[in-house]
Specification:
Oligomer: heterodimer
CATH class of the largest domain in chain B: Mainly Alpha
CATH superfamily of the largest domain in chain B: MetI-like
Shape of chain A: globular
Order of helices and strands of chain B: HHHHHHHHHH
Number of helices of chain B: 10
Number of strands of chain A: 10
Largest sheet of chain B: none
Number of helices of chain A: 8
Chain lengths: 269, 278
């Protein structure tokens, strides 16, 4: 496993993730990313927005340590001592990525099981995580018995069960219908307000990124680079009213305009 | 978080005509069988065919009952060989696949030989095995040779079809190789392993029979295949049919048992074991 470098004490002043001139070139020779510089403050909600193939998922995998950068350095703030084995990172994939052969409860328990957490404590935390996503009564169900939105909630609960400082989300709601997606957006915002975790959220939806984030990072494709940054300074808590407000529409226009150059170079699109 | 709507957990309810269809699917083969047996008996009686050419089904059944002590003994012998060959094939196939999964070098060096063993007809290998091994061992080795390959190749396929994101998740949470094997790779491969075992069950019976036939009268064997060969020499055709009937029944039971085990293990989660509606 590729462990990203731990941030030095000086760096950790308020930063959760710090990327410096990070590039990724795949074995096939495709330059997927960078060079990319990115700083994310602790407790911040940042969206990476861009066309498909712009390396936003790659950036997320690099931060998680699932693959190694070709060059550059990645710093991730780690918490001290208390977390044995379990990293301070939770990852939510585009698909729910659940183990179909076991129950919701066992799926959520997985990170704790792998870290050899004591059973009593694991049970307590699994229950808490399931409660957080409103799935307590489905603990004994198998993934196939759940709807797409509920599977995604299980995936979210699994990411939360280790109480990570950083939540990485790779287009988690892309495959859901719009109503479910709106609801999960609201639930995610509520969770973030309560838990104040650092969230890096990858999406290709302008509307989703504006609704959720404090900061939208717009990326261009091949190789993925940072092309614009838009701060969303809307009042909190955000709700459905924000979604229909003029402010929201204005931000969406601004982000869309920032995103336009990313698409202009692509033939036919 | 907001409350959730209850999902249609048990929304699948068989349509009333589904049960009828099921009944027809069971009844039709039985009717065909009964008709076939009746026609067979009728032809034998009307044409006065002597039993050493073609015994009627009633003659076969009475032989089955009269010779039951001999035949049941042979059945047990063959079943025991089959079981031993099957267990060896199951353990050998899964273990080899796990080894191959751990080391590409091992896979590259050994896999071609597994293929060669599989594509060489076992009926041609059996006489050689009988020269070098004691007969009982040779028979089991034969059963193993035919049966281990589907387990090996299916398990390998299963171990290689692990969901990439799930593998990433295990990596993220720092899973040890043993944890990854136990909690990710083996469960992922389970449907494939069970499929391989289902094929292996029938094949180990074939392997056992082939070896018994090859051993023939020279051997001290007493399995069903040996009974068939022996009865052939004696022109005891009804007993040949009776032994064949038992072999066939044994094959069906083995397949049914393995299919049942597979269904019971997978029914809660795997697509193959679910109804079409889901």
């Amino acid at each position: 496993m590729v462990q990203p470098a731990t941030l030095t004490r000086a760096d950790t002043a308020g930063l959760a993730v710090s990327l410096r001139a990070v590039t990724k070139v795949y074995d096939s020779g495709v330059a997927a990313l960078g060079p990319l510089d990115l700083d994310v403050r602790k407790g911040e909600f940042v969206s990476l927005l861009g066309p498909s193939g712009c390396g936003k998922s790659t950036a997320l995998r690099l931060i998680a340590g699932l693959s190694a950068p070709t060059s550059g350095s990645i710093g991730v703030a780690r918490r001290g001592g208390e977390a044995r084995g379990a990293p301070g990172i939770g990852f939510v994939f585009q698909e729910p990525t659940l183990m179909p052969w076991t129950t919701v409860r066992e799926n959520v328990r997985l990170p704790l099981k792998l870290a050899h957490a004591p059973a009593a404590e694991a049970n307590r935390r699994v229950d808490a995580a399931l409660n957080q996503v409103g799935l307590a009564e489905f603990a004994g169900a198998y993934p196939r018995e759940l709807s797409g939105g509920m599977k995604m909630r299980v995936s979210l609960a699994r990411a939360l069960v280790t109480d990570p400082d950083i939540l990485l989300m790779d287009e988690p709601f892309a495959a859901l219908d719009e109503i479910t997606r709106f609801r999960l957006n609201n639930d995610l915002l509520a969770l973030w307000r309560n838990l104040r975790k650092t969230v890096i959220f990858v999406t290709h939806s302008v509307f989703e990124s504006v609704y959720l984030s404090q900061r939208v990072i717009v990326m261009t494709s091949r190789p993925g680079r940072l092309s614009a940054e838009v701060r969303i300074d809307a009042a909190e808590p955000r709700s459905e009213e924000f979604r229909t407000s003029a402010d929201y529409a204005g931000y969406c226009r601004e982000v869309s305009n920032a995103l336009a150059p990313s698409y202009s170079g692509r033939a036919g699109s | 978080m907001s409350s959730l709507q209850t999902p249609p957990l048990s929304a699948r309810r068989a349509a009333p005509d589904q049960a009828g269809l099921c009944l027809v699917r069971i009844l039709l083969p039985i009717v065909v069988l009964a008709a076939g047996v009746a026609a067979w008996e009728l032809v034998v009686r009307l044409k006065h065919i002597p039993p050493y050419l073609l015994p009627g089904p009633i003659a076969v059944f009475s032989t089955l009952i009269v010779d039951w002590t001999v035949l049941s003994q042979s059945l047990l012998t063959t079943l025991q060989t089959t079981l031993e060959g099957f267990i060896a094939a199951g353990i050998g196939g899964i273990a080899l696949a796990l080894l191959f999964n751990q080391s590409k070098w091992l896979e590259y060096s050994l896999f071609p030989y597994a293929v060669i063993l599989q594509v060489t007809p076992v009926i041609a290998i059996a006489p050689l095995l009988l020269i070098y091994l004691p007969q009982q061992t040779a028979v089991i080795v034969c059963a193993w040779i035919v049966a281990f390959f589907p387990v090996l190749s299916n398990t390998t396929l299963g171990l290689n079809s692990v969901d990439r994101n799930l593998a990433g998740l295990f990596q993220l949470y720092g899973a040890s190789p043993t944890q990854t094997l136990l909690h990710l790779k083996l469960p992922s491969a389970l449907p494939f392993i069970l499929g391989g075992l289902r094929i292996a069950g029938g094949l180990s019976l074939i392997g056992a029979v082939v070896a018994e036939i090859a051993a023939g009268s020279a051997g001290a064997g007493s399995g069903l295949a040996y009974r068939i060969a022996e009865s052939g020499y004696r022109l005891d055709i009804p007993r040949m049919f009776a032994a064949l009937l038992l072999l066939s029944a044994a094959g069906i039971v083995i397949y049914g048992l393995l299919a049942l085990v597979s269904h019971l293990v997978l029914r809660r989660w795997h697509e193959s074991a679910l109804g079409k509606e889901n």
